[in-house]
UniProtKB/TrEMBL annotation:
Bias-annotated ranges (Low complexity): 647-662
Main location (coarse class): mitochondrion
Residue span(s) of domain Tr-type G: 47-353
Listed InterPro entries: EF-G-like_DII (IPR053905), EFG2 (IPR030851), EFG_II (IPR041095), EFG_III (IPR009022), EFG_III/V (IPR035647), EFG_V (IPR035649), EFG_V-like (IPR000640), G_TR_CS (IPR031157)
Biological role: Mitochondrial GTPase that mediates the disassembly of ribosomes from messenger RNA at the termination of mitochondrial protein biosynthesis. Not involved in the GTP-dependent ribosomal translocation step during translation elongation. Catalyzes the GTP-dependent ribosomal translocation step during translation elongation. During this step, the ribosome changes from the pre-translocational (PRE) to the post-translocational (POST) state as the newly formed A-site-bound peptidyl-tRNA and P-site-bound deacylated tRNA move to the P and E sites, respectively. Catalyzes the coordinated movement of the two tRNA molecules, the mRNA and conformational changes in the ribosome.
Polar residues bias spans: 634-643
Compartment annotation: Mitochondrion
HAMAP family noted in UniProt: mEF_G_2 (MF_03059)
CDD domains in the cross-refs: EF-G, EFG_III, EFG_mtEFG_C
One Pfam family of this chain: EFG_III
Name this polypeptide is given: Ribosome-releasing factor 2, mitochondrial
UniProt record, GO biological process: mitochondrial translation; ribosome disassembly
Organism of this sequence: Hymenoscyphus albidus
Keyword Protein biosynthesis appears in the UniProt entry: yes
Length: 859
């Protein structure tokens, strides 16, 4: 297809004749390269596959970097621009209009391009062989945190992009912590070094203090003449300088070894030697093998082979602990530093086989997927959590599992219908195979399998393990569902128990904090609006829709103002729904202020033509975090705690025993019915229809008195529990013992020194918040883990401060505060007016606190 050739010390991109025939009268065809011919498809090698994501704060350059990666890999023939709305991964109209990423986009390319890589022999780098890269570009705005979460759930590695001017920003810390949760190996790329005010040294030291990892500087910036414009990078691993021609497309790279650098730029040569020494010393603290290699070369750092350093970096980061952070440099907008970053993806980030085995739940058991597939989990005793030797019949059941995958994203495409993005963890999902959804217990047919190229796609015959792909046309699958294909069984009934309950670790959905009313323009439009909202909810589970019982209004809840604004735009513009969204409101909570007396309810009525009869007793009290631990029968649900008391459910309870329960009502069924009833009652409080919070409910269900033969069904038990809890809440409301709670946010505000006083005064006086701390960006005094003074970074020739954490004229300050969410609505505009447009903030839910006095009256 294409090749890289060396000509007079230059790396030059040389397109083949086949890639030139797509030119059309002087214009580059910007269509996807892989669409041209199905013959370009090849069977991906799992060892040469990288499932990676790009994570960062908003405006750090994620989409711009992605666009350069696609161009240099031969995936596109033109570099798109975020400002022009011509990028591949930002294809939604709302994304192109705002210039931000709203939903994560998946794209597959090869690096080096197919046919361009050399053969891998001996100690040559992995990046010499073509790899399949499944790349996901994630949003950076805090309102779309769920998009980042569900992408991180299925990734094997990540690139964290840092703004060389702003440094480590608040949202960067947040997504870094999320990546730590999933133990994802990461590398850091300091971007925008071509801009005025860029400070590589300060950013590296903020990586140490803010991200709590030791920065291993693999590249240093190359400033022309020491204090000129940003022209390239110094490679501390290969001991070479890489220079990009100014104003080009970045494909022409001039390379210089140490001898050539002595004539070209002696200052860079000396700094590069310092960088190599610091890099090796840092790695030796984590890797004893490299220390032994260093001793073999008589402590001569410059003689250590580059491949030994690459192997050491890979070994240190592959566990995903974040203890060591390789740092690279560049300026994506100026097309500098992207190709070495692509090489780093191949060299350092893991393939799917090097990641920990996925965790699964199988009925009451929890184990790893490989334990199940290798026959080390007993299927005959679901209650036994011990890994045991299986019987022959159990082994035959497991061998019939053809594949196991996780649905991590659902998109409603206007041309292709519903697209379900999946990550396959075992086996291979084939076209037209039957897929069993273990969450919904339904079977669907995988009619079409696609390899997505952002908004475009290529049809494929199967999706093997370790790959990311798309199933088109599934009617029921949702985000977080586990999909398995199984042979030798009835498609309608699915695999036998307990395999039909096999579930991969689910994706946690954060609770919404804002809501707005949706009003259809007419009664005839109401049904269409409801269907469109269901489509939105299937795409984005962090949105919620509730129907107000009294007014009948549809309330749409989301993670923030921008989140709801985008949902409204999609509702009206993309789905053409004839509806209007009201003002954005705050989602409050209700709480109980005193214990209630027991309330017993007998439910006796017909449900769907069948008689139902059951009884239940409920009490409710405020939940005290300092109280003694509750019994094992207590579960936590949406901030509330539910304790179930079922006499005779344990053999130690007496002669009644669990054997007294009717066969149609096993103990797990009764527990589930009681919990569902209580949760339904707690979803709407008696005072303002807000959900209950921090409440402790005790449900007493006595089988000897609350079961009435065949008339007692799970639906009747659930209804009795719901009515009993509702009765206790009504009793407390009549005695004025129901209070209101409001969400209080953790807010991190980044601003310049001159705006600090105005911001602190505004937060503490006008908005009723509490300022918790004032910090310098990059100050590590509160960390105590990494001594920033020991961290190596080349000096910044243009930095305003000294780079040692001390305050300088351009030093950013960070304000940490706790503020009621109501006061943060519309805060971004106010912050920009206070800071001259330079201030940013990010917030997350801290807790719900009770309202009192004037604030309660205002609500």
């Amino acid at each position: 297809m294409s090749s890289l050739v060396m000509r007079k010390g230059c790396l030059i991109w040389q397109p083949s004749f086949k890639s030139l025939i797509i030119r059309r009268r002087g214009q580059f065809c910007s269509n996807i390269w892989l669409r041209q011919s199905s013959s370009l498809q090849h069977e991906p090698d799992v060892k040469r596959t990288r499932n990676i994501g790009i994570i960062a704060h908003i405006d750090a350059g994620k989409t711009t970097t992605t666009e350069r990666m696609l161009y240099y890999s031969g995936y596109t023939r033109r570099i798109g621009d975020v400002d022009d709305g011509s990028t591949v991964t930002d294809f939604l109209p709302a994304e192109r209009a705002r210039g931000i990423t709203i939903q994560s986009a998946a794209v597959t390319f090869h690096w080096p391009p197919l046919g361009a890589g050399a053969s891998s022999k001996g100690n040559s780098p992995r990046s010499h062989v073509s790899h399949t890269v499944n790349l996901i570009d994630t949003p950076g705005h805090a309102d779309f945190t769920f998009e980042v979460l569900r992408s991180l759930r299925i990734l094997d590695g990540a690139i964290c992009i840092l703004d060389g001017v702003a440094g480590v920003e608040a949202q960067t810390e947040k997504v870094w912590a999320q990546a730590n949760k999933y133990s994802i190996p990461r590398i850091a790329f300091v971007n925008k070094l071509d801009r005025d005010g860029a400070a590589f040294e300060r950013t590296v030291k903020e990586v140490a203090s803010r991200l709590r990892g030791w920065p291993a500087v693999c590249q240093i910036p190359w400033w022309a003449g020491g204090k000129g414009h940003f022209t390239g990078v110094g490679d501390a691993i290969n001991l070479s300088g890489l220079e990009w021609s100014e104003g080009g497309d970045g494909k022409l790279i001039q390379t210089y070894d140490l001898d050539a650098l002595s004539k070209k730029d002696p200052g860079l040569r000396d700094e590069l030697v310092k960088a190599r020494i610091a890099l090796v010393e840092s790695l030796c603290e984590f890797d004893e093998d490299l220390l032994s290699t260093w001793l073999e070369y008589n402590d001569d750092v410059l003689k250590i082979p580059a491949q030994a350093i690459r192997d050491s970096i890979r070994k240190c980061i592959i566990d995903g602990s974040g203890r060591l952070i390789p740092v690279f440099a560049g300026a994506s907008f100026r097309n500098i530093g992207v190709q070495p970053l692509l090489d780093a993806i191949d060299d350092y980030l893991p393939d799917p086989t090097e990641r920990p085995d996925p965790e699964i739940s199988l009925g009451d058991q929890e184990c790893s997927l490989s334990d199940l597939l290798d026959g080390r989990v007993s299927l005959s005793t679901p209650g036994d959590r011990q890994v045991a030797k299986q019987t022959h019949s159990s082994k035959s059941l497991v061998t019939q599992i053809e594949s196991c995958a996780l649905a991590f994203k659902v998109v409603n495409d206007p041309k292709r219908g519903v697209l379900v993005y999946i990550r396959v963890y075992s086996g291979s999902i084939k076209r037209n195979s039957n897929i069993w959804n273990t969450n919904l217990h339904v079977t669907e047919r995988a009619q079409r399998l696609l390899q997505m190229q952002a908004s475009d796609a290529v049809e494929i015959q199967h999706i093997p393990a370790g790959q990311i792909g798309v199933i088109s046309g599934l009617k029921h699958a949702r985000t977080g569902d586990t999909l398995i294909s199984y042979s030798g069984t009835n498609p309608k009934s699915g695999p036998p128990a307990p395999l039909n309950t096999l579930q991969l670790r689910p994706i946690d959905v954060p609770p919404p904090v804002f809501f707005a009313a949706i009003e259809p323009h007419s009664l005839s439009e109401e049904r269409n609006v409801r269907e469109v909202l269901q489509m939105l909810l299937r795409e984005d589970p962090s949105l919620h829709v509730n129907i107000d019982d009294e007014s009948g209004q549809m309330l749409l809840s989301g993670m923030g103002e921008l989140h709801l604004e985008i949902a409204r735009d999609r509702l009206v513009n993309d789905f053409k729904a004839k509806a209007t969204m009201g003002n954005i409101e705050i989602s409050y909570r209700e709480c109980v202020l005193a214990p209630s007396s027991p309330q017993s309810i007998l439910f006796d009525r017909e449900v769907a033509g069948k008689k139902g009869k059951a009884a239940c007793t409920a009490t409710i009290e405020p939940y005290d975090e300092l109280a003694p631990p509750k019994p094992d029968s207590t579960i936590e649900q949406d901030g509330n705690h539910i304790t179930l008391q079922i006499p005779g459910s344990n053999p130690s309870d007496g002669p009644l025993g669990s054997s007294s329960l009717p066969p149609s009502l096993p103990l797990p069924t009764i527990r589930t019915a009681l919990i569902n009833g209580a949760v339904a009652a707690l979803a709407r409080g008696p005072r303002r229809n807000f959900p209950l919070h921090t409440s402790h409910i005790t449900l007493l269900f006595n089988p000897s008195t609350d079961i009435f033969g065949a008339d007692t069904t799970p639906a009747a038990i659930s209804s009795a529990a719901r009515l009993a809890v509702t009765a206790t809440l009504t009793q407390l409301h009549n005695t004025s013992n129901i209070g209101l709670m409001e969400p209080v946010m953790n807010v991190l505000i980044s601003c310049n020194e001159g705006s600090l006083g105005a911001i602190v005064h505004d937060i503490s006086s006008a908005r009723g918040g509490h300022v918790l701390s004032l910090e310098n960006e990059g100050n590590d005094s509160e960390v105590g883990i990494i001594d920033v003074k020991r961290v190596y970074a080349p000096p910044d020739p243009f930095a305003s401060g000294s780079g040692d954490g001390k305050e300088g004229p351009g030093q950013l300050r960070q304000v940490t505060a706790r503020v009621p969410l109501k006061e943060m609505v519309g805060y971004l505009r106010h912050l920009r007016s206070l800071t001259g447009g330079r201030g940013t903030f990010v917030m997350s839910v801290d807790r719900f606190e009770r309202l009192s006095g004037l604030r309660e009256k205002a609500v």
